[in-house]
Design brief:
There is one protein chain. Helix 5 runs antiparallel to helix 10. This protein has helices at residues 13-24, 40-50, 58-62, 79-88, 103-116, 130-141, 173-176, 178-189, 304-316, 324-340; strands spanning 4-9, 30-36, 53-55, 69-72, 92-95, 120-122, 147-155, 195-201, 212-218, 224-230, 240-244, 247-251, 255-260, 289-294. The chain is of the alpha/beta class. It contains 10 helices and 14 strands. The strands form 2 sheets. The protein has an 8-stranded mixed beta sheet, with helices on one face. It folds into 2 domains: 4-123 and 303-323, Rossmann fold, CATH 3.40.50; 127-301, Dihydrodipicolinate Reductase, domain 2.
Amino acid sequence: MEKVKVGIAGLGRSGWGIHADLLGKLPEKYQVVAVCDPDKTRRGEAEKRFKCRSYPNLTLLLKDKETELIVIATPSTQHATNVIQALKTGKNVVCEKPMATKLSDADQMIEIAKKTKKILSVFQNRRYAPDFVKVREVINSGKLGRIVLIKISWNGFSRRWDWQTLKKFGGGTLNNTCPHAIDQALQLLGEEEPKVFCHLDKTLTLGDADDHVKIVFQTKKGPMVDLEVSSCCAYPQDIWCIMGTKGGLHGDFGKLSWKFFNPAELPKRKVETAPTSDRSYNSEKIPWQEETWELSKDKSPGSLGFYTDLYHTLKKGKPLLITPESARRVMWVIEKCHKLGGM
């Protein structure tokens, strides 16, 4: 197989701990041939790990003729500038989330990708998360009936004091954690543009950016989605809670359970206006069927699926699955939330 020659820009938490690890697990498809980072120690680690070339900045990395795909894993505020620079030098690009810090920047990135005819994808890898894949499968099966409400809760109780807690660096939970959850919500809602309600708060973070986010999505045809990502929840709820007219689902990243019934198995009834004989509320026994899913038994590729599908796009001409236009929808929500959320 012909390998994709990769350059990684930024060797921090994402570039080193996520992208380098994933690419290293697909040696038959990808080869990291160059990296850049201002930190000399980090560059040395990459040289040793990948036997690659290293550069102190992106400009020099982009002059490396062997690289055909650049992974932009630099700080959030640099994404747009770095992506556009890479596209203009003829490189295909994977951009870490958030795609940008402004919707107008995202639009410019998409425009440049079209003009240069290069591939631009955004690392919305949570579309490949095994729990999300299963949730969408259960919803699409129709077993739960018409979906009324989807609750997504990524909650905990903890403080942060790194650069991602500062507004001047594009920090905050909305910008840095929520892109994954928002993307999942939009995938479940479909193509219809939702109405959006948002509340932002700063609770435990030592910086000045938000760390408590509540977003509610509403469409005419789809379900309502209640999304909460908070650092001040001492009693976290299920990550997933889905309500439908034939059943429901709940669970977390590691285990899901859902139950449903066949309406044909219920006795036929009609509205009655006469008092019940024993003054009680209506009640009946639902013939539930129950099913479960566990991550430990799941064989899906998870985030490796992102780079596997991207390889097929780059080398075999398959359609790009995570398009920049779909990531733009996430940016649209984030920008609207910043305006509505009060921070």
